[in-house]
Amino acid sequence: MYTNIRNPRGQHLDTSHHPAAGDRRGTLVIGHGVTANKDREWAVTLARAAAAAGFDALRFSFAGNGASEGSFANSYPTAEAVDLAAVLDAVDAAGTGPIAYVGHSMGAAVGVLRAAVDPRIARLVSLGGMVHTAAFVRRKFAGLAPGALMWDKPECPLSQAFLDDMERIDSVLPVAPRIRVPWLLVHGDADTVVPIEESREIAADAGGPAKVVALPGVDHVFTGAAEPMAALVVDWLLEA
């Protein structure tokens, strides 16, 4: 199942499927952040916890990331929102809903863009969620020209397409009122990549019930805190 998901460009998206234990409660789709992939520790830990609780869990890498086909130069929120739609198409076709989407960092911004227009996302979770895309670029990549390495990663050259899209979006804050499904925002208060204030700001403008949970002393990628984060997300999904 989910072995041949392709985006509209025809690019294969690499996935890992964790079948639900017992009766299925729905499917949890997990998307990563910028310069990452589906195999980050937090994502694997969350998928396993969700499956144990009765949710199918589907981790995937956006095109150009990890083992997915495509160029990293085309990894930017607008394109990744289209990738996410292709994954939702596959889950919808499998009849394994309702669907919850969990996005980390830029993947959370992608989730906001998609959930605002796609009713198939019945629950939304943002982990260290990026809100102000243009400000993020200015904060983290100021002075870098296209072709320079993002965070010194050889496989992640900064592209003009990425810069243009992040500037064009500017912020997903104006989209918040269109998010009417239950929304959980989990953020470490020691996050130096995306400030926790961004989660609080966007939750205040949500069009539906939104809950912010701050994790004391936790960084952007939930180092040493993946299991507590996963338990928190799964408990919320069970309650919701």
List keywords for this structure.
240 residues, alpha/beta, Rossmann fold, seven-stranded mixed β-sheet, 7 helices, 34% helix, 17% strand
Mean pLDDT: 97
- The CATH topology is what? Rossmann fold
Rg is 16 Å
The main β sheet shows up as: 7 strands, mixed
Strand order of the largest sheet: 1-3-2-4-5-6-7
> Multimeric state of these chains?
single chain
The fourth-level CATH homologous superfamily is Alpha/Beta hydrolase fold, catalytic domain
> How many domain modules?
1
Report the order of strands and helices: EEHEHEHEHHEHEH
Q: What helical percentage do the residues reach?
A: 25-40%
Let me know the number of strands.
7
List the helices and strands and how they pair.
Elements (H helix, E strand, L loop, with lengths): L14 E4 L7 E6 L9 H12 L2 E6 L16 H18 L4 E6 L1 H10 L5 E7 L5 H9 L18 H10 L13 E6 L7 H9 L5 E6 L10 H14 L1
Parallel strand pairs: 2-3, 2-4, 4-5, 5-6, 6-7
Antiparallel strand pairs: 1-3
Helix pairs in contact: 1-7, 2-3, 4-5
Describe this structure in words.
The structure is a single chain. The chain is of the alpha/beta class and 240 residues long. The chain has a single domain, classed as Rossmann fold (3-Layer(aba) Sandwich), CATH 3.40.50. Helix content is 34%, strand content 17%. A 7-stranded mixed beta sheet has the order 1-3-2-4-5-6-7, sandwiched between helices. Helix 6 (196-204) links the parallel strand 6 and strand 7 (210-215). The longest helix has 18 residues, at 77-94. The chain is globular. The protein starts with 14 loop residues before the first strand and ends with a helix. The model has no long low-confidence stretch (mean pLDDT 97).
